[in-house]
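Appendix B.2, paired examples.
Example (i):
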Amino acid sequence: MRRSVSILVMLCVAAVPAMAQTRPFNAAGVTTGHEHLAGTDAAAHNAFWTALGAVPAQLGTNQILKIPGVFIMFQNAGARGGGGGVRGAAAPAGAPATTAPPPAAPGPSEGSSVEHLAFKVKSLKDTLAKLDAAGTKPTAAPTAAQAFVLAPNGVKVQLVEDTALATPIASYEMLMKVSSAADAAAWYEKWFGARIVKQGQFTVAEIPGMNIRFIETKEPVAGTQGRAINHIGLEVKNLEALMKKMTDAGVMVNRPYAAAPATIAPLKSLGFITDPWGTYIELNEGFSEIP
């Protein structure tokens, strides 16, 4: 009887998901958190990612989207500068009403340091059919194993079929353009514990949730701020200690470590940095607790 009760307890515990953890941490205490996209059409953004397989999730008072391995967040370009009409002093009597010009759309992801995001799909044919029904077609003829599509607001997305996938879709990797793949790999290994592997001619930094595939280029590349993929996000254990090390080492810190506001609970803390190749990175503690 005692053994039966023990087995029952073990089965019940196993049935409860581990505190909303969507991906493991690596040995350095780092995992993927989110990809933060910018644009001017939130409805089109939601329609595309929902058709692709994303599901709603909640970050404090904000609705975000979740794909196994990563969260997708959207930033309305008009909110960055407090867009909309002027709400300060009243216009002089008799003066025509004026409104602020519409916000400028962000630049596309192509041409920036993070050129595209890649996702694995269990069935490429089925995924493309769902996107087609939502009004999105491949940018070129797909192969049997992969296709490229353009998400609203200029986000380039690669889809790679993996029939062994346990879910219809899962996060996979991003393509990062840098001047030196070896230097970039060493930087991500040093600060985020990335496991560096060679895949043919490519160097890949493996981080749980979404790997980074480096491509060397001699052409100038724009930073991600102000582009459709505005910044990438990593979840870090003991973020305060990492931010201190980065600051002491001269890493470009755009926003120092700080407690997160209650409106984005369960996030506990955050900070922003820029890597040496122009990729804007948000560092957080708490994404792993989002259901």
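Example (ii):
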Amino acid sequence: MLTGIGLLMIVYLFGVTFKFHTLTWILEHFFGSFFILLIILFQDQIRLALADFGKSWNRIALIGGKTNQDVHDFEEVVHAAQAMSKEKIGALIVFERVHGLMNYIASGTQLNSELHSDVLYALFQSRSPLHDGAVIIVNGKIAAAGCFLPLSDNSEIERHLGTRHRAAMGMTELTDAVAVVVSEETGSISVCVKGHFTVCADGRELRRTLSLIWREDRILNLEVGH
């Protein structure tokens, strides 16, 4: 898109130089709405940039306070993921970090319940009316279930990955959330961060992966504080 805009500017300069009045008039009106066009074309990138700017201030506010999750929080997720993996029950669990997920929480059924592996296991049973959507965890509580997440439009995503994986990728591309996915077809467990998946062979590896993510968060918080 930037290349296309650059070419139009070259054509405009060409029209002005050689006095092609009609072409110049059309392009002048086009560039008159240039900033509006930029906002429309790059709305996702602008939103991410603003979110990253706010993220830095939020990290400063979190210094000295409780981080978004502690060991107990993702331990419950590990237990639930292990159980669902053995039975090949599909699941999508999202941890909120610094970027707020209220828009996505509002799309599901708000629960605000205590985080427990049994609750997560029950929510993703095929008989549950909320099993198709995502569960979002905020500050150690299940904020909502059955949430709709944005699907990634990444053309390089592997074809065998289903809707849950595409939703996890889309969510982590737009926010700093961490998504845990259990495949309904294979029972495999994976963690998605920034649009990239890490496959975890078992619960121990899932625990280690989540621990590393929040350890990096704590280190970053300390660096911001200094």
